[in-house]
Amino acid sequence: MSDMTATTTSVSEALTTADGRPLKAALRRAQSLAKRRAFMLVLPLLAFIVVTFVMPIGELLHESIYNPDFHDNMPETVAWFAANPPSTVPDEAAFTALADDLKTSAAARTVAQVGTRVNYVMPGTRSLFTATGRKAKSLQPPYKDALIAADPKWGDPDLWATMRQVSSSYTADFYLAALDHTHGPKGNIVPVPADQAIYLMLFERTFLVAAAITFICFVIGFPVAHLLSVLPLRTSNLLMIFVLLPFWTSLLVRTTSWIALLQREGVVNDVLVYLGVIDAHGRLQMIYNQTGTIVAMTHILLPFMILPLYSVMRPIPPSYVRAARSLGATSWTAFRRIYFPQTLPGIGAGSLLVFILAVGYYITPALVGGASGQLISNQVAYFITGAGNNWSMGCAIAGLLLAAILILYWVYDRLVGIDNLKLG
Amino acid sequence: MQERENTDGFVVFDHVQKSYDGETLVVKDLNLSIGKGEFLTMLGPSGSGKTTCLMMLAGFETATHGDIRLDGRPINSVPPHKRGIGMVFQNYALFPHMTVGENLGFPLEVRGMGKFDREAKIKRALDMVQMGAFINRRPAQLSGGQQQRIALARALVFDPSLVLMDEPLGALDKQLREHMQFEIKHLHDSLGITVVYVTHDQGEALTMSDRIAVFNDGRIQQLAAPNELYEAPQNSFVAQFIGENNKLPGTIEEIADGRATVRLQTGEFITATPVNVSQKGQPTLVSIRPERVEYMPERLPAGAHTIDAEVLEFIYMGDMFRTRLKVAGTDDFVIKNRNTMEQRRLQPGEIVKIGWAPQDARALDPL
Ligand SMILES: Nc1ncnc2c1ncn2[C@@H]1O[C@H](COP(=O)(O)OP(=O)(O)OP(=O)(O)O)[C@@H](O)[C@H]1O
Ligand SMILES: [Mg+2]
B186 CB near a chain A CB, below 8 Å? Predict the structure, then answer.
């Protein structure tokens, strides 16, 4: 009797296998091999993602807050800033440190980098550094007088405040700038003057244009996807080729053909003039502006709306709508109450996909956007590849874009639930 | 339902034809009249056009030719939502994004019924199928049998006088199916509704129906009450399709006084009841139910022909014996006997004389 009780308790405490090992441990052992094998299978993909996705994005985020150009090339000035509190008036020691640093960096040909870094915050100072750098060798003590003699700007307290501000390698300045803000004279954060503020406007425009494109894609894509989903498979596969056709043509060719169609002397204008809808002087400007961006990008992104919608609609059996009809619903009610709600996961997936792609699109706005069709991604390109030549700034804008998309994703998850997403 | 007030007329198919592709007729000249309150089953093999007929009645397919009348008025041009026909689909078609209550409320809502009346009706319909406790569940949270009940309740909640069911029990296991057959039949009897029921399970058809229309190849092969269908099939297809049957091919030797003498392929003669054969020399298929064959001489009716048979196999099935014999050249002749005290068990290899009452052997057209 007592034996039996003992067995019962031990069973309720921890199950064991036939040879007495705890069941949980045995199970874990048995599963670990399978887990390891599964892990080996995904390892190449994991490595690929780390190298091509996680590392670049990490690098991008790092770059957006890291700029050592001043810090590395002006060590003595940096040391003086560290030793003296911010309100200290620069004394002879400060100017000596500055002159020494200018001499060494002029010799190392890095003075232009330093100037550029200061110039990001205080426009017009790059030439100050390069000009003084050229004469650095001949500077004689006392350096305060010598430097101010070389250029009176060296005595400007704002310049010293700016140099102190950029003396750290890590900075949030680029994010501030990307949000149209800057440091005021007292170190507080203030908006930049209205004539220099462009980024917030560009962010806003980007999101509005992306929303418009998403909406148009939905309006055009929904009926197409529905048609494809009710046709016999053979016909719908054939038509699907037409949906996918844009993928088979180079992006550049497609965008260029929109130029041929929409430009002032283009096909659409010609037809309108021929039909007498507009006269020859009133040709419509449909490209090199926001309209051009929206039209061309809608065309390019449409398949990304149709495919998830189709994959959600195809398996909806016709018997649901039939059931609704037999229960007394008109075809409109049956669509609205029964069919449409079941397509929501596809609408969510398609919209999210199109919106995110549109927010980051660069080539099409660059080609057909003109001035009013430029989006925020064009600024990223400008800073990274173009005349802007400011990686940190480009990365900061890209980082904000990334954050915005993560927020969007989070909001979507809260409102709809990410597990309701159906991509295919 | 025995009390059919108006045997010809609640639902009428009048020379209805249907073709999907313009090349083949899926339904060929269908004439069918269903009485009010009747439980009519369409039974037939896959692809015989049962669903098509139901869909035409519900309004989801249009008849290529002919008229369908509901309660006296032609409904060819009436859209489905105005026909007021309840329908249970094979896959139930419960709306997955709605709760059970919302599913049942849907037909009432689209009819503009107020919330208060709606709730009362939903509750009544759910209680009818004993599912009152499940009103807030989603269809995905219900078992197959429970979904089936909800589908039934939804088809009945708006008080249609005609309910169509397309293989409603096809997805259920045997036990549940038998239980639901009983419940559907019970609901039919207590509500007095007309039911058109589609199945390809003959057992289901036989137990539930007032009348059965046996479909094959787009035609009704026979329309009759279950017992008549089983005992007096009008042609070989029906004889084959309903229940088990032994078939002996032969030719008519003589027809007289409602008796046909048939010469079997091996030269023996048997007597049978002529059904759709009329003249001497015609090929025929004689069909005999396994349970109507006797091999104990004292049980044979007077004047019955007997014929020699060799026992091939004896199978013990508990309540029944099933014996396979070689008769007149065919070796899949089966007889079934109840397992009673006095029943003799046949041994393989044994030669016995078997026989049957002449009215149980039906001489039909050859298939
Ligand atoms: N929408 C359609 N388009 C073309 N042919 C169809 C269509 N629906 C059914 N058919 C054809 O019509 C014939 C009858 O089909 P139906 O669905 O009525 O058969 P059924 O008797 O209900 O069969 P099952 O028992 O398998 O459900 C079949 O040959 C089928 O291939
Ligand atoms: Mg069917």
Answer: no
